[in-house]
Amino acid sequence: MSDAVSDSIVVEADPDMVMDVIADFEAYPEWQDEIKEVEVLARDNDGWGTEVRYVVDAKIFSMTYVLAYTYDDDAMHWTLVEGDQVRKIDGTYRLEEQGDGTTLVIYDLEVVPAISLPKMVRRQAAKRIVDSALKGMKRRVESKT
User: Fold this and answer.
1) Cα gap 121→76, rounded to integer Å
2) What is the pLDDT of residues 3-35, one digit of tens each?
3) How far apart are the first and last CA of the chain?
4) Alpha helix stretches (DSSP H) within the chain
5) Are the CB atoms for 113 and 86 separated by under 8 Å?
6) Which terminus of the chain has a smaller tally of CB atoms within 10 A, N or C?
7) Helix (H) or strand (E) holding 117
8) Going from the N-terminus, what domains does the chain have, and what CATH number goes with each?
């Protein structure tokens, strides 16, 4: 069984508005409680963040990591560049326009911590991250409509 988790949520907004929120890395601390600090280290020619450093309070410990981002028309993908408490953080936000002014947002995430934890604990932590991020993102996007 993989440590990857996936969940989804329907947001009352179009995919462009959702992408604007999930790509606004500097605002993450405003809608994701665990994220304490964000710094965009590199941007592409369109201004989209391509390398981002995070400081996160993971309850048990704090950690710092850098993620590399790539973008498709309907998705944002990331992979771990470096991290002090984590070996892998790979994920994707996929956006599916529903044709009624809403967007289905699918969040896939795989996290491997640097410390040894039981598989069940790792999966529960990843599920908590995904659930919290989706709910926070939904509130953020819908507050802007």
Assistant:
1) 26
2) 688 999 999 999 999 999 999 999 999 999 889
3) 39
4) 15-22, 28-31, 119-143
5) yes
6) N
7) none
8) 5-143 (3.30.530.20)
Alpha-helical regions (H) of 35-145: 119-143
Six-digit token pair at 121?
A: 């604990």
Q: Token digits for 120? A: 């069940």
Query: With 0-12 CB in 10 A as exposed, 13-18 as middle and 19+ as buried, what is 68?
Result: middle
> Model-level pTM?
0.89
The Cα–Cα gap between 15 and 41 comes to: 25
Contact 133, 27 (CB under 8 A): no
pLDDT at 135: 94
